[in-house]
Specification:
about 75% helix, about 0% strand
């Protein structure tokens, strides 16, 4: 095997530094004792202590997690159904507009999506709040979940499901007992992707949220406009740690499954 050249090593090193150096600085300055985020004043955990006393920030975190979990679950369930229809439905009537509507949010600007959802909720007379944000995130992330699950279903061996049906299972039972466990990694990946996109969203939540439904990105954005508070570094560091822990856990589970 050829050894990588010095140019390739330098290019990879610069790329990784460009991606992760800002994150490393953010984590480092979350332990800064100084109120000025660009001036190091010594090691301290005061901003974490201040964060856990900030009820508005904690409420925003709680709203964001609830919205993410519920919307990702809805998007994943609907994504499974949409993927089954696209992979196994054949050339049914309305397939082209159906697939077009599923994939449209992939290329649609978020501003347009947010505005259209806002007009929909206003037209239906729904008060904006927690559930409008949740439904909006489920609508937007549905397409991503469908793409991930559809890619796995296309490679699935239908003979396994047919064998289960020959042994007495009905179509739904065969799917739940045979197909779903085999595509579980793709379903989990779709859920994680939908949850991450919900966690990151600012534009759509800004259009569809209401009183008592302020998400964490909205809270952070409103505070950054008034100046960078070291508490923002602290909450961002906690989010980075949570995401890193989740990625590590998934990697360990997949590695254990591969070893078996």
């Amino acid at each position: 095997m050829r050894r990588p050249s010095a140019f390739n090593i330098a290019a990879v090193g610069l790329g990784l530094a460009f991606l992760y150096a800002p994150i490393a600085l953010l984590v480092l300055y979350s332990f800064n004792a100084s109120r000025l985020v660009t001036v190091w004043g010594g090691f301290s955990t005061r901003w974490y202590e201040s964060l856990f006393r900030n009820e508005q920030m904690l409420d925003a975190v709680w709203v964001t997690l609830r919205v993410g979990v519920i919307s990702a679950t809805i998007a994943t369930v609907l994504g499974i159904l949409a993927a089954v229809a696209l992979v196994r439905g054949g050339q049914f009537r309305g397939r082209l507009p159906f697939s077009g509507m599923i994939y449209a949010p992939l290329v649609m600007p978020e501003v347009i999506l947010g505005l259209s959802l806002l007009l929909l909720f206003v037209g239906l007379g729904l008060p904006r709040g927690f559930w409008t944000v949740t439904l909006s995130h489920a609508t937007v992330t549905l397409c991503y979940a469908t793409v991930v699950i559809q890619a796995r279903l296309q490679d699935f061996d239908l003979s396994l499901e047919e064998a289960a049906r020959d042994l007495g299972c009905g179509p739904a039972e065969a799917f739940l007992k045979v197909t779903l466990p085999n595509i579980a990694p793709a379903v989990a990946a779709a859920w994680m992707l939908a949850f991450t996109l919900s966690l990151d969203d600012l534009v759509i939540a800004s259009f569809t949220s209401g009183p008592g439904a302020t998400t964490l990105p909205m809270r952070l954005y409103s505070q950054v406009r008034l100046g960078v508070n070291p508490e923002i570094n602290a909450v961002s560091t906690l989010l980075i740690g949570a995401v890193a822990t989740g990625v590590l856990a998934v990697w360990l589970v997949q590695r254990r499954r591969g070893a078996r």
